[in-house]
Amino acid sequence: MVTCGTSENGEEIREGEVIPGRLKSYTYVKVNSISRMRVDELARRSGASPRSIRHYDRAGLLTSVRRPNGYRDFPLQAIEEVRVVKRLLASGLSVADIVTLRPCLTAGGEFNGCAQARSILRRHIARLTASIQRDQETLAHLREREDNMSPAGQVEQSVG
């Protein structure tokens, strides 16, 4: 059998081994002295769904290692990677944009000064600016309609 990690109290855990008095499966083990998590644990700790974690991983946005049994292991840093991806998605960037921007991100999720980041951010800012302009025009139109309404309780007869 191959050693695949250690328990929280230092016991060596071998692949497929069942430790009496413990859960048969576990999601959090130390592998090569680096804490690792499986998809469900990363999802729980990052606030993302397991489906989102798999999607981000397939897109190349997360650091992961495939184990011999086919499962993915994620290091602790993947928690922050997921949070950065979620923050960028919430700002309106697409997964494709984030994939392109990944080399331009610092460890803390900020952009360095790379040309790709500037280009994508300028396009995104232009889209948001246009969207805000449309929303402001719609809001002005609705306010005008509201101002021109009959007082409450009065119904105008339509001619027809």
Would you mind describing this structure in some detail?
- Helices cover about 45% and strands about 15% of the residues.
- The chain is an alpha+beta fold and about 160 residues long.
- It has a four-stranded antiparallel β-sheet. A two-stranded antiparallel ribbon has the order 1-2.
- About 15% of the residues are buried.
- Helix 1 packs across helix 2 and helix 1 packs across helix 3.
- About 15% of the residues have low confidence.
What are the SSEs and their pairings?
Elements: E1 3-6, E2 12-14, E3 28-31, E4 34-37, H1 39-46, H2 50-58, E5 65-66, E6 72-75, H3 77-90, H4 95-101, H5 115-147
Antiparallel strand pairs: 1-2, 3-4, 4-6, 5-6
Helix pairs in contact: 1-2, 1-3
Short recap of the structure:
This protein is α+β, with helices and mostly antiparallel strands and 160 residues long.
